UniProtKB/TrEMBL annotation:
It comes from Streptomonospora mangrovi. Keywords: Membrane, Transmembrane, Transmembrane helix. This is Integral membrane protein. Residues 252-272 are annotated as: Disordered. The keyword Transmembrane applies. It comes from the Bacteria. The chain crosses the membrane at residues 15-35, 56-76, 82-107, 119-138, 158-179, 186-205. Coiled coil: none annotated.
Length: 272
């Protein structure tokens, strides 16, 4: 185990990322356990921090940890020693506390245990998935082409230019996928070519920015998107929510996975 850690993590320069990842996951699990204990009104567990009656959310402590770890990492020159690992861990722990209240930052009000609060869990899951991919050595498609040393690599300028163009097309597909409401395929497509492009040419998710711009209510594409959403996407969302609530706790409101906008009667009349 020690040899594997030294050769696969330290020697490859991934020690800071490894420390960040471990601290991030640990911080998320710890804070979720804490808030669930507080919600259950467990007497022996410390409650919310309320000096003078002011509820201080854990995002405040998260920002402090991130500042401490981030500034320390900027000052540390040794990228393989214990100090940089500690700094990265502080940054990761703070990031977990901040993203766990992502919905609070987004809505500027306390929606932690409401339907809107699920955005925090989604943000944490996305961060864990992306960091895990980077930790395993996976890099965004086209990373080598845009790296400063890419010009020194073999393959010829024509091949390098073609790969660069393909990388830009793949990136554009990821952007379109995100605009179509396909968060996971859009992000995965950054690492795996063609995934985002396939997602980009398929129908958008009802309620997504792309659907609002391109699919008038009552149009044929609007109806196709709604039917596909009900048949494929909603069962997947329900399964995802069950997994998330097993880890993060159950929200007060039942899962609402119907992002279908209310059709405009005038548009329906025109369509008819």
């Amino acid at each position: 185990m020690v040899e594997w850690f030294g050769s696969s993590v330290v020697a490859t320069g991934r020690l800071p990322l490894f420390s960040f990842f471990v601290a991030f996951v640990a911080g998320f699990l710890l804070i979720r356990m804490s808030v669930r204990m507080i919600r259950a009104r467990v007497r022996w567990w410390p409650g919310n921090v309320r000096p003078g009656g002011l509820h201080i959310h854990h995002v405040v402590f998260g920002v402090g940890f991130m500042m401490l770890g981030g500034v320390a990492a900027l000052l540390i020159t040794d990228r393989t020693g214990v100090p940089i690992a500690v700094a990265a861990a502080l940054f990761g722990f703070g990031s977990a506390l901040v993203l766990d209240e992502f919905a609070l930052i987004l809505h500027l009000r306390d929606v932690y245990w409401t339907e809107q609060g699920r955005a925090s869990v989604d943000a944490v899951f996305v961060a864990i998935a992306l960091t895990g991919l980077l930790l395993t050595g996976v890099r965004p498609f086209g990373w080598e082409q845009f790296h400063p040393a890419a010009g020194q690599a073999g393959g010829g300028q024509g091949v390098q230019a073609a790969l660069m163009v393909l990388s830009l097309v793949n990136l554009a597909g990821s952007v379109v996928s995100l605009l179509k409401g396909k968060i996971w395929t859009g992000l995965i497509g950054v690492f795996l070519p063609a995934v985002s492009i396939v997602a980009a040419v398929r129908l958008a998710v009802p309620g997504s920015p792309w659907a609002r711009w391109r699919y008038p209510a009552g149009s044929e594409k609007w109806h196709q998107a709604v039917r596909r959403d009900r048949r494929i996407r909603r069962p997947l969302i329900r399964a995802k929510i069950r997994v998330q609530e097993l880890i993060a706790g159950r929200h007060d409101l039942e899962p609402t996975v119907d992002p279908t906008p209310t059709p405009d009667p005038r548009a329906l009349t025109r369509a008819g």
